[in-house]
Design brief:
Helix content is 59%, strand content 1%. The protein is mainly alpha-helical and 500 residues long. It has a two-stranded antiparallel sheet with strand order 1-2. It is found in: Nucleus.
Length: 500
């Protein structure tokens, strides 16, 4: 099927992702082919600059002096360029797992032509954060070994990147780096460092008023932040779209980590504190080029409005918006479960309303079995969304399951549905999974284990049903071991399940 000048399959068209479809009719390159070409051009540009001017060399290898101090010397230019080229490609194949909100083609275009004096700090900062994440996501031991050097460079440049009068790009690059670092530390079981960068990201988002983009209300409250985070007007619709998506990527991070790490969410929707969210729901970043927001579009109380009408069918087909809503309901369910009182009518009403809203979102999600197997980015995102929605139900039912998980009850059925989604996904195509999924799968596994324990207490487990009951746990362990090749957090949770 072809929509206009861009060929697209029916599945991507229905999902609102036609512009990103990998279908090709032979008349033009696909999105991945264009990305590969842009990365290749960046590599050639680096080689050209190195042959003419030695100054930019340190920009691509800022830790060369460290290597020399260790007696290893610098890598040959050609090998270094190939290494960084590979890390760029690896990162952009998995960029959705690190909350990347920038438009990739524009970003590559911006970094392909550094000035003669070299990149400014914020560009070097983000590039090294990308190399760091790329090294984390690969199974190549030699490439993974460079993580400590990339991380040292990123941490050394974080403060200088915003020194002086930081421009729009510097602020957004620093925010993007903070998001990447949060995912990186979470994936490496370094929760304290992850929390620090998570809080830094939320601070920047509020200080830049990213939660009030296109707000129809007058400014109120005084969110935390500093003068160095003041953003000027966006230069075009794409830059505005990047800011919208940046905010929601921070919120996704906040909602998931607030549950996983049992820490307070920064997004409290408090009018007095100025944290009520008015920004529009996000779209896939490329859509802002072809379908920008109307000039007069304004909004207010985005999340509050959604929560008041979440029983209605969700017609949003942008994956990032679905992920945002799934994360919101996941966090709301966790909070509500802590205060649930079956003897309080208002508490029961809130429980019932949220339960119905979660079920509605689950019904509205695109089936993962119909996702294009050649699009690991879509598979990864859809799998995360489905798991988040199912775990929202499991979190909400925590007080009900306190006495035990009932076989074929709602929590048991929901957990099996989550495993079914895992089975339907082409796990072999998802080489790297975002770390938050490890926490979600652990919630699912816990429900299954407790359900089996309930059956065991009833003396109804025997040779005829034991294998079938244990099969879902085996599926979860297989997935965790697969992603544990690169992820310490998945290895930690899979080891804990083995010893449980």
């Amino acid at each position: 099927r072809c929509d206009g000048a861009h060929p697209a399959c029916g599945q991507c068209t229905k999902a609102g992702r036609a512009i990103d479809c990998e279908y090709s009719d032979g008349k033009g390159p696909t999105a991945s082919q264009i990305l590969e070409e842009q990365v290749s051009q960046l590599q050639l540009r680096v080689a050209e600059l190195e042959s003419v001017n030695a100054a930019p060399l340190t920009l691509f290898d800022p830790y060369e002096s460290f290597r020399r101090s260790q007696g290893g010397g610098a890598l040959p230019s050609q090998q270094r360029n190939q290494t960084l080229h590979t890390l760029l490609r690896t990162f952009f194949h998995h960029s959705s797992a690190f909350g990347f909100f920038l438009h990739i083609p524009r970003f590559l275009q911006q970094v392909a032509s550094p000035p003669g004096t070299g990149y400014p700090n914020h560009v070097t900062l983000l590039l090294n954060a990308i190399y760091l994440a790329g090294a984390q996501a690969t199974t190549d031991a030699q490439l993974r070994a460079g993580q400590s050097s990339y991380l040292a460079t990123v941490l050394n440049l974080l403060t200088p990147a915003l020194s002086g009068s930081a421009d729009n790009a510097a602020i957004m690059y620093v925010l993007q780096t903070e998001i990447i670092l949060t995912y990186y530390f979470l994936d490496n079981n370094r929760g304290m460092e992850g929390t620090y960068h998570w809080r830094a990201a939320t601070s920047i988002a509020f200080a830049c008023k990213l939660h009030r983009i296109r707000s129809s209300r007058s400014s109120s409250g005084n969110p935390a932040g500093g003068a160095q985070y003041q953003l000027g007007p966006p230069v075009d619709s794409l830059e505005e779209g990047e800011r919208i998506n940046a905010f929601w990527q921070v919120l996704i991070l906040d909602k998931c980590l607030s549950v996983a790490l049992s820490s307070p969410s920064a997004f409290t929707e408090d009018e007095a504190k100025g944290t009520v969210i008015d920004s529009p729901w996000p779209m896939d970043v490329s859509v802002y080029l072809t379908n920008p927001l109307p000039p007069g579009a304004r909004g207010m109380r985005t999340i509050q409005t959604y929560m008041q009408s979440m029983g209605s069918p969700n017609r949003d087909r942008h994956y990032i918006a679905m992920q945002v809503k799934a994360s919101i309901l996941y966090a709301y369910a966790s909070d509500l479960a802590k205060t649930y009182n079956p003897n309080d009518h208002a508490s029961v009403s809130r429980f019932t309303y949220l339960d119905r809203g979660i079920d509605q979102l689950a019904r509205d999600l695109p089936p993962i079995a119909r996702a294009e197997p050649s699009r690991p980015d879509i598979l990864r995102t859809l799998l995360t969304i489905h798991l988040s929605v199912y775990c929202a139900t499991l979190q909400l039912n925590t007080p009900i399951d306190m006495a035990g998980v009932m076989y074929q009850g709602k929590s048991w059925t929901t957990a099996l549905n989550a495993v079914t989604v895992l089975q339907q996904a082409n796990l072999g195509a998802i080489k790297f999974m975002e770390p938050g999924a490890a926490y979600l799968l652990t919630i699912v596994a816990d429900i299954i284990v407790r359900g089996i324990m309930t059956l065991g207490a009833q003396n109804v487990i025997d040779a005829s049903n034991q294998a079938a009951l244990l099969a879902p746990l085996s599926q979860i362990l297989s997935a965790m071991e697969w992603w544990g090749r690169t992820s310490p957090v998945f290895r930690m949770f899979s080891a804990a399940m083995y010893h449980a």
